């Protein structure tokens, strides 16, 4: 059974300095906890923002483990849920990495893991080509997890452009969809806010997106604008320029009201669109 609670999207300016990044994570998790937040969402690459993605392969096993364990410690320290947005872990093939999000409980239990499904292979104008698939092994499972806060669907960054994934999460019972991201400035200024609001509107769920912000290197510049959108698509919290928090209240009655007002979920034509799961 879901309940009211405060959630916070952390907006960071990460670099390839692991120690500094984790210190900034600790700072903002503490700031959120002091505001009685019960769920903190970190952005993609919160622990290590490489100048070139292949540099992540140079991280030692101890460093990869430190990224994850540092966030677990903060969840335990403050007794809150923390979503460690995309961070690198060694893939099963031993040659590539996964881009993983892990949801920690207030006691440090790993409630869910999600490996990024959609990989960003593109040639953005004015930027070097990006080839995530050269480095990252894609995930193959949509992840929705029930917690004592609400039911949460997990995604990462580029997944946002694939609405079928969010519809699957919604039909599996997701009430809150999380989007840790490092959206580029080039695409973010035109697409970020529109896509997040669309995912909230079409699925009548809360969407919480924690983003990287600013110029990380000569090759990487992130858009920022971490935000929370409610099931009507209204942006109820948004971070300003620089590092910071977007804090909002998750309200189950808001979901119920929106779904009663526009009952589109009851009108899905499964006779025409096969393969959709029944609603949880």
Notable features of this structure?
single chain, 280 residues, alpha/beta, Nitrilase/N-carbamoyl-D-aminoacid amidohydrolase, 6-stranded mixed beta sheet, 16 strands
Quickly describe the structure.
By secondary structure, the protein is of the alpha/beta class. The protein is 26% helix and 26% strand. It has helices spanning 18-34, 61-78, 163-171, 185-203, 252-261, and strands at residues 5-11, 39-41, 81-90, 97-104, 110-115, 121-122, 130-131, 143-146, 151-154, 176-178, 206-209, 213-215, 221-223, 227-229, 235-238, 244-250.
Can you put this structure into words, describing what you see?
The protein has 280 residues and is α/β, with parallel strands linked by helices. The protein has a single domain, classed as 4-Layer Sandwich (Nitrilase/N-carbamoyl-D-aminoacid amidohydrolase), CATH 3.60.110. Helix content is 26%, strand content 26%. The chain contains 5 helices and 16 strands. The strands form 4 sheets. The protein has a 6-stranded mixed beta sheet with strand order 5-4-3-2-1-16, with helices on one face. Strands 8-9-10-11-14-15 form a 6-stranded mixed beta sheet, covered by helices on one side. The model has no long low-confidence stretch (mean pLDDT 94).
């Amino acid at each position: 059974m879901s309940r009211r609670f405060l959630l916070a999207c952390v907006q960071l300016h990460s670099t390839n300095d692991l120690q500094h990044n984790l210190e900034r994570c600790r700072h903002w998790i503490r700031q959120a906890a002091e505001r009685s937040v019960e769920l903190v969402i970190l952005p993609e690459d919160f622990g290590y923002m490489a100048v070139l993605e292949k540099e992540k392969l140079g991280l030692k096993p101890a460093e990869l483990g430190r990224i994850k364990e540092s966030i677990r410690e903060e969840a335990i320290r403050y007794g809150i849920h923390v979503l460690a947005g995309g961070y690198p872990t060694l893939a099963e093939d031993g040659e590539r990495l996964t881009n993983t999000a892990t949801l920690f409980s207030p006691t440090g239990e790993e409630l869910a893991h999600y490996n990024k499904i959609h990989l960003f292979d593109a040639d953005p104008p004015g930027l070097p080509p990006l080839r995530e698939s050269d480095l990252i092994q894609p995930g193959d499972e949509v992840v929705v997890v029930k917690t004592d806060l609400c039911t949460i669907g997990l995604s990462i960054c580029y997944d946002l452009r694939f609405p079928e994934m969010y519809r699957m999460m919604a039909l599996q019972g997701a009430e809150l969809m999380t989007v840790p991201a490092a959206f580029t400035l080039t695409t973010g200024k035109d697409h970020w806010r529109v896509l997040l609001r669309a995912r909230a509107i079409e699925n009548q769920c809360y969407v919480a997106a924690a983003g990287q912000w600013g110029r990380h290197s000569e090759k990487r510049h992130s858009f920022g604008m971490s935000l929370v959108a409610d099931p009507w698509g209204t942006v109820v919290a948004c971070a300003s320029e620089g590092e910071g928090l977007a804090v909002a209240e998750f309200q189950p009655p808001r979901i119920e009201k929106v779904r009663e007002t526009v009952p589109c979920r009851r009108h899905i034509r499964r006779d025409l669109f096969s393969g959709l799961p029944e609603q949880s």
